[in-house]
Specification:
Layout lengths: L1 H14 L4 H9 L10 E2 L3 E5 L5 E6 L2 E5 L2 E8 L6 H15 L2 E3 L2 E3 L4 E6 L9 E7 L5 E10 L5 H6 L6 H4 L11 H20 L5 H18 L4 H10 L2 H26 L1 H23 L4 H8 L3 H10 L1
Parallel strand pairs: 5-8, 8-10
Antiparallel strand pairs: 1-4, 2-3, 4-5, 6-7, 9-10
Helix pairs in contact: 1-7, 6-8, 7-8, 9-10, 11-12
Length: 315
């Protein structure tokens, strides 16, 4: 299971690295725009012998450069007593690989680092700490903030542009029962609408959305392997590739109808109505394919039963 968490984290870091920017803003109180130019650094760090031969290798989850600053993020499924040791080791190797030459010799600068805890308990601290004592007894406290994913609501995630956390948000329901079905539905509909708005504003693209949706569904399928109803609830509103492909066809169809209608009642008004209709038809079709009853579809989409029947007859 931990491997799936790591794979999702590393894939998003590699394929959609700009989604890390809001996490950096959250962890370190920065204010970078999500469109800020970034450089994704290698996750492989080598320990070298005196002759320059690689003796060992350390793999970090994510290190990126923004301007002249380096940031390092790690993902941890549960609190771990060894995390402080691993983080200081990772950061030391990142610092060594970005050493600066000075008039007196060399300077290494540790990156700003944070850890995502996908689960946490009541005693989980807000930061990792370690004291580093040098030979002259100078002491430095090494600190790494912790991002506790399950503390963030859907409003927090959308409002702070923390789209990277959407796949992991489902984990707070991993031990829940059917009593949370309506809550899951409302939460993931909010995520989906938030991503659509972000796409329209140029903050996300279709590739970002596709990966976020795909990984959300993969985690839901794993967590709810023996609870098909809960799995289906997530898939109904985060339908991934199928939903997007079908919805896009419906949107295109709606725009065409809107243009025709626009000749009679004003082009802009017609296009808006056509696009709205297209999205609605796409959602109705997917819910119907997932065996939702007409009554359930009507309740989910705030439509009348007659409206749902009319849409199903047309598509």
């Amino acid at each position: 299971m931990a491997q799936l968490f790591d794979d999702i984290f590393r894939t998003l870091c590699e394929k959609n690295p700009h989604l890390l920017i809001p996490l950096i803003n959250e962890a370190f109180r920065k204010n970078y725009p999500i469109t800020e130019k970034i450089e994704l650094l290698s996750g492989e760090h080598h320990i070298l012998s005196e002759h320059g031969k690689s003796l060992a290798e350390r793999i970090t989850d994510s290190a990126i450069r923004i301007g002249n600053k380096i940031y390092h993020l790690e993902c941890q499924s549960s609190p771990d007593g060894t995390m402080a040791l691993r983080m200081v080791e990772y950061d030391f190797h990142i610092a060594l690989e970005n050493v600066e030459k000075t008039s007196q010799g060399y300077r290494i600068r540790f990156p700003e680092s944070a850890v995502l805890y996908l689960r946490h308990g009541k005693t989980t601290p807000d930061e990792i700490q370690m004291e580093v004592v040098f030979p002259d007894n100078a002491t430095v406290t090494y600190r790494v903030p912790i991002i506790k994913v399950q503390q963030y609501t859907e409003d927090d995630i959308i409002g702070k542009q923390l789209y990277f956390l959407i796949p992991y948000a489902i984990m707070k329901y991993e031990h829940a029962g059917k009593e949370v079905l309506s809550k899951i539905s409302a939460e993931y509909e909010a995520f989906y609408r938030g991503m659509l708005d972000a796409r329209d504003e140029g903050l996300l693209n279709e590739y970002d959305m596709s990966n976020i949706i795909d990984f959300t569904n993969r985690l839901a399928s794993y967590l709810f392997e023996e609870n098909q109803e809960m799995k289906r609830e997530v898939n109904a509103v985060m339908g991934g590739e199928v939903l997007e492909t079908y919805a896009d066809r419906m949107i295109a169809k709606g725009r065409l109808e809107g243009e025709i209608e626009g000749e009679r009642k004003g082009r802009l008004e017609g296009e808006i109505e056509g696009e709205r209709r297209g999205r609605l038809e796409g959602k109705v079709a997917i819910l119907h394919e997932l065996d939702f009853t007409i009554d359930k579809i009507a309740e989910r989409l705030s439509l009348s039963v007659e409206q749902v029947k009319e849409i199903l007859e047309q598509i």
